[in-house]
Amino acid sequence: MIVLEPIVTSQLITVTQRLTDLSANPRANKLQITDEETNVSRVITLTGTTAYDYFDNITLTINPALKEGHTYKAVLYYNTIANYTWKGKIFCTTQPDVRDYSVNDGRYTENTTTNQFILND
Prior knowledge:
It is a single chain. This protein is mainly β and 121 residues long. Helices cover 0% and strands 36% of the residues. It has no helices and 8 strands. It is extended and about 60 Å long.
């Protein structure tokens, strides 16, 4: 899940697009986001994409800004939604530590077993 802030200035996301034939379907040039609470969709034209070997950095400016606490379905595509290259979710929040959250934060759980078998190579 991608975490974005409810701001109008540019933000960076990193995605791995499903690209099979760049001559037929180049990298995405549009992003459709759908608010899961209101079911309202909007399309954002991408202006800044930096391509790397296995992932892309995409700079987004979403105006009007996303709503705090809302979750969005996201689809990256080239010209038509049928040519989608990535699907995912976006969560909008201003909390700074959400990106580093782990369910095991500060705890270590050791795996214990009653297995008595010894394996020899």
